[in-house]
Amino acid sequence: MIHNLILLLMAPVFIVQGRYVRKVTPKLEEASGPRSGSAGQGRVLRLLLVGDSAAAGVGAEDQSQALSGNVINQLSSHFKLEWQLHAKSGSTTRDTRSSLSDHPRQAYDIVIVSLGVNDVTKPLSSIRWLHQQKALVTQIRNHFSCRQIILTKIPPMEQFPALPHPLRWYLGSKAKAFNRQLTRWTATQSDCELIDLNYRLKPEQMAIDGFHPGPEIYQFWGATIAEVIKARWSSD
């Protein structure tokens, strides 16, 4: 109730600040480089990475420095990887569900998901977002027959340099509400893992736009995901 009242009273300010941020924030391109391939040796693992601009590597020059490249680099000495990246800047959970419906049905062992920031910026409640996330996970299970789904908590948007106050505070508090819902639900799903990087993220490690991860964040994120994968598959 209090949250809705604050939103109602502050909506004009948030709208003006949102337009300002879109106008002045540098528009960074998605990382260049291949979005599919094979690497490594050993047991075969089929990986699919899906999601938004962070999955697409915005903030890194090349995919080798982005999330996909760091995951592959960390795993290639342990597994033979067949991987693909399916991501687009600006994608919400709903957008990703729509695009995945057109993706060929095929089997992947692991699906890595990066979504949430764009959902937070929309007029969407945490309950509705969780419903969308549940639907996405169900779609991934049915479409790709995967055994492990790895999600990541929405980053602490209250620390994003690109966002002015009070918009920064509002989006940060909304992101936390989304994360609480997702944390409770994923804890009940045996095939889902939820990565939490928020305690390690530093604003000075972000990209020059103050909104996307920089190479250091991608490196730590990729290493964290790789450890989760190795813990599950090395002994499986």
What does this structure look like?
It is built from eight helices and six strands, in the order H-E-E-H-H-E-H-E-H-H-E-H-E-H. With 236 residues, it is an alpha/beta fold. Helix 3 (67-75) packs across helix 8 (215-233) and helix 6 packs across helix 7 (167-186). The longest helix is centred in the first third of the chain and has 23 residues, at 2-24. Keywords: Hydrolase. It comes from Photobacterium alginatilyticum.
What portion of residues is helical? Answer: 40-55%
Q: What's the total helix number?
A: 8
Number of strands: 6
Biggest sheet record? 6 strands, mixed
**Class derived from helix and strand content:** alpha/beta
Q: Strand-residue fraction?
A: 15-25%
Q: How do the SSEs run, as a string of H and E?
A: HEEHHEHEHHEHEH
Low-confidence stretches: none
Average predicted confidence as pLDDT:
92
Radius of gyration: 18 Å
Query: Given the C-alpha coordinates, what overall shape results?
Result: globular
Neighbour order of strands in the largest sheet: 1-3-2-4-5-6
Q: State the end-to-end distance.
A: 47 Å
